[in-house]
Amino acid sequence: MREFTTKGMHLYTRNECIDLMNRWGGEGRPFLFAVPFDAGSGWVVPADAVPEGVFFQVPLESRMPDAVPLPEPVEFRAEPPDFEAYCRAFACVQSHLMRGDSYLLNLCFPSRLETNLSLRDFAARAVSPYKLLVDGEFACFSPEAFVTVRGGVMRSFPMKGTIRADVPDAERRLLEDEKERREHATIVDLLRNDLAMVCEGVHVPRFRYVEEVETSRGAILQTSSEVCGCLPEGWQGRLGDVLFRLLPAGSVSGAPKEWTVRAIREAEPYERGFYTGVFGFFDGESLDSAVAIRFVEASVEGLVYRSGGGITVLSDAEEEYRELIDKVYVPFAF
After folding, report:
1. Which stretches make up the Chorismate-utilising enzyme C-terminal domain (predicted)?
2. Which of 40, 191, 228, 255 is most exposed, with the fewest beta carbons within 10 Å of its own?
3. E-state strands within 214-328
């Protein structure tokens, strides 16, 4: 067991996380957890022992700091990643796609922020159903559930496809975009297969519905689907096994997972850490969890915002680069 942060949490191995989740799940003991993208480790902490400086919000529970007045004027500018570096990574991804190693890969890069906002400002003010703040480390304000469980029914809401809402005829263009349609269908199929490993009766009640999200730079439209299935009796005592069986999240890795993750490690020139991992809360009976996207992280150079998008053989480097930049936003006005 290794120290994780100065916030009083520990980074456990994968097997230690699974054992703790299984034991506490079976006991009906509420806990908070977070798992990095590589799913090789994670932290799990009882709900009554969450350290000072760690805050979270999910539909089941909210423990967020109070918002304080923002600086005047607010400064928020992003320095995009180097386009040539992005193109090298994009070319690496395309070589894997052409070889058939993957047919959808989520490529991510960091953008350095010039801002007078703090991590606590981002977390406290963001309008988002899933939030996690480890003060001094990172703030995540994710719109995307990983899996939820209510009454033994597991649901996932894969999110793929975005467009600025002010684009003429935006909703129709998003729904009819061939690249976006294929990308979304691939992820839904992947999630169906994932849930079928742990659930029975897996089906898709809603496919590719459109939602609007307000951001500091205007509204965007995004497409999501709902995939659900029934967990077996006693799932709480196997909660760790169930969750880790589903990792990493398909919407932020790609398909097929094993070979796609290998390609991601080759293409991306850094470790993702908790970005695109998952975090969540078990209240003793039900579960909420989220994909850790919309992620601001402290670094030696200041705050960075991590973003990305799905790449297929139909993708264009300039268009994907612009999409990556468009995703550097905060869901609150200033």
Report:
1. 83-327
2. 40
3. 220-230, 254-255, 278-282, 287-291, 295-299, 302-311
Which residues are paired to 257 by β-bridges?
A: none
Quote the CA–CA distance of 185 and 228 in Å, as a whole number: 15
Tokens (6 digits) for 334: 């200033």
From first CA to last CA, the distance across the chain in angstroms is 42
Which residues, including other chains, have CB under 8 Å from residue 211's CB and lie 6 or more apart? Answer: 221, 222, 223, 224
Domains and CATH numbers, the chain: 2-156+236-326 (3.60.120.10)
Report if pTM > 0.85.
yes
CA distances from 265 to 112, 261, 316 (A): 21, 6, 21
271-320 pLDDT, tens digit each: 999 999 999 999 999 999 999 999 999 999 899 999 999 999 989 999 99
Q: What is the pLDDT of residues 248-261, one digit of tens each?
A: 999 899 999 999 99
